[in-house]
Amino acid sequence: MKDYLWYNRFSSVDGSPRRGEPSIAEIEILANDNANGVLQLSTDSVVVSEDYVGPVINVTRTAGAFGTVTVKFQTIPGSALANVDYSVTSTDVILYGGETSKQLPIEIINDRIPERNETFLVRLLDQITGGAILGTPQEAEIMIESSDDPNGNFGFGTSSQTVTEPSDGQERQLTINLVRNSGVLGVVAVQWEARLNGM
Ligand SMILES: [Ca+2]
Ligand SMILES: [Ca+2]
Ligand SMILES: [Ca+2]
């Protein structure tokens, strides 16, 4: 990039100013280093909840912010899968002149499925237009927190049950179901106790 400064140089002879020679000087100011910017991710790790709505991660532009630049990125599925756990509406990010930050078009998909923590990667590619260069970090891990009670939530199948008292010396067995709602991942143990008259 070149910036030009033109100016007229006058000299004065006998008090009557006139234009001297040379009358015009051209000064070329070389562009500063990375005038179009250095592009990188705003962080190298993000933790979001499954119901999070908003910017997940940004491209930031440091050094210069001259002109429009674009950068491509890709996501690399891990335990989180594209179009199941997250979606990407475009693989390009555009920063216009003067813009120093822009969110990546990534959305977290909310569902009712019980899941444990899941991750995927975001990587900026060295496919940049507009004269910017790639900085660091170029890669980030996005973790979607466990959702919808992956190990289950527990309750009794009924809140009250009536039984007749057994005759003297007899026993009667009660069956009260414990119900595991939502997720059924993993082995869980539930503690319980019996109280007489709620005491
Ligand atoms: Ca999932
Ligand atoms: Ca999910
Ligand atoms: Ca879920």
UniProtKB/TrEMBL annotation:
List, in alphabetical order, the Gene Ontology terms for molecular function in this entry. Answer: adenylate cyclase inhibitor activity; G protein-coupled receptor activity; G-protein alpha-subunit binding
GO process annotations (BP): cellular response to calcium ion
Q: Name one GO cellular component term.
A: cytoplasm
Q: Name one Pfam family in it.
A: Calx-beta
Q: Does the keyword Signal apply?
A: yes
Q: Which UniProt keywords apply?
A: Calcium, Receptor, Repeat, Signal
**Name by which UniProt lists this protein:** Putative G-protein coupled receptor
Q: Which organism is it from?
A: Stichopus japonicus (Sea cucumber)
